Amino acid sequence: MAARRENELERVKNDLIKKNLPNTFEPELLLIDLNQIDNIKTKIQSISDDIDILVNNGGISYRGCALDTSLDVDQYIMMTNYFGSIAITKGLC
């Protein structure tokens, strides 16, 4: 499992472990920020042999009027929601 907030990763991991499901492995955790494109390839390649399935579902949302939203916010959202997922996928190739 990967996310930018370590405390949330640990919480979800512990919740899964408490379920004591049969035939499962303990989740491995990876701290990663989808907005930090330059770090993604290195982090993903370090664990790529351990990945069987990739689910790209990370991202952020913004609620505001499009006309009033600064271009910096638009770029941040695109970097996180689009380019971050692309970088992870390409990092596995």
Instruction: Give the terminus-to-terminus CA distance.
Output: 19 Å
- The residue-averaged pLDDT reads 92
User: Would you list the SSEs in sequence order as H and E?
Assistant: EHEHH
Cross-sheet strand order for the largest sheet? 1-2
Unreliable runs: none
Name the beta content range: under 5%
Share of helix, binned? 40-55%
Structural class: mainly alpha
Number of domains: 1
CATH topology: Rossmann fold
Shape from CA axes? Answer: globular
Number of helices: 3
How much is the radius of gyration in Å?
16 Å
- Summarize the main sheet: 2 strands, parallel
CATH architecture designation: 3-Layer(aba) Sandwich
Classified in CATH, the superfamily is NAD(P)-binding Rossmann-like Domain
CATH class: Alpha Beta
- Number of beta strands: 2
What would the keywords be for this entry?
mainly alpha, Rossmann fold, two-stranded parallel sheet, 3 helices, 4% strand
Q: What is shown here, in short?
A:
This protein has 93 residues and is mainly alpha-helical.
Overview of this structure, please?
This protein has 93 residues and is mostly helical. It has a single domain (2-91), classed as 3-Layer(aba) Sandwich (Rossmann fold). The chain is built from three helices and two strands. The chain has a two-stranded parallel sheet with strand order 1-2. Strand 1 (2-3), helix 1 (6-18) and strand 2 (30-31) form a beta-alpha-beta unit. It is globular and about 50 Å long. 9% of the residues are buried. The mean pLDDT is 92.
What topology does this entry show?
Elements: E1 2-3, H1 6-18, E2 30-31, H2 37-47, H3 71-91
Parallel strand pairs: 1-2
Helix pairs in contact: 2-3
